[in-house]
Write a structure and sequence with these properties.
Number of strands: 19
Structural class: alpha/beta
Strand order of the largest sheet: 2-5-8-13-16-18-19
Strand content: 25-35%
Order of helices and strands: HHHEEEEEEEEEEHEEEEEEEEE
């Protein structure tokens, strides 16, 4: 029989329990420390990121404040940059490839909820992984929804809501985000 955490990590329906609550509390304590380190050298902030995130590549930077559910499901490639006030809901893996640049107030959601009201009332949740390729640029205020894959070299316009996969090298804008017409 799987634990609720094992179900969560597998992308199955799960019910948040005491174990997951304790892990979220630990993430909140870490975020308090990390977000207080805004004036600290980048090297100190990098070390703090390595404490909590699943993988932090060389020269990866997240400018505080930063918010996440657990942290350990986030994998950052080399040279990744997240500007101020980003949110990553990481109940399952969120992978961000090398040299990807993410503007301020970007929100990446791997957390999802059942579409059926009765299942939601039962307190069940699930997640769908988000994969963002290398050399991607995401403009400020964009939202990436659960289960989305963004191909290498893609551009997502500021304020866009990305509901579907984005092809390699594509530029998408709007709500919902669609390929830009030339």
């Amino acid at each position: 029989m799987k634990t609720e955490k094992q179900k969560m990590l597998a992308g199955e329906l799960y019910r948040p329990d005491a174990e997951l609550g304790a892990e979220q509390a630990a993430a909140k304590a870490w975020m308090t420390r990390y977000n207080a380190a805004l004036a600290s050298p980048t090297s100190e902030r990098h070390a703090l990121l390595c404490e909590r995130l699943g993988h932090v590549g060389k020269d990866a930077v997240i400018r505080p404040p930063f918010f996440c559910d657990y942290g350990y499901n986030i994998r950052l490639g080399d040279g990744v940059f997240l500007n101020f006030n980003c949110i990553i809901l990481d109940v399952v893996e969120v992978i961000i490839g090398d040299r990807t640049q993410i503007g301020p107030a970007v929100q990446i959601y791997a957390a999802d909820h059942p579409r059926d009201a009765e299942t939601r009332r039962a307190g069940l949740e699930f997640g769908r992984p988000v994969h963002i390729g290398s050399d991607v640029w995401i403009g400020g205020g964009a939202i990436i929804l659960p289960g989305v894959t963004v191909g290498d070299g893609a551009i997502i316009g500021a304020g866009s809501v990305v509901t579907r996969n984005v092809a390699v090298g594509a530029t998408v804008t709007g709500n919902p985000a669609r390929p830009r017409q030339v």
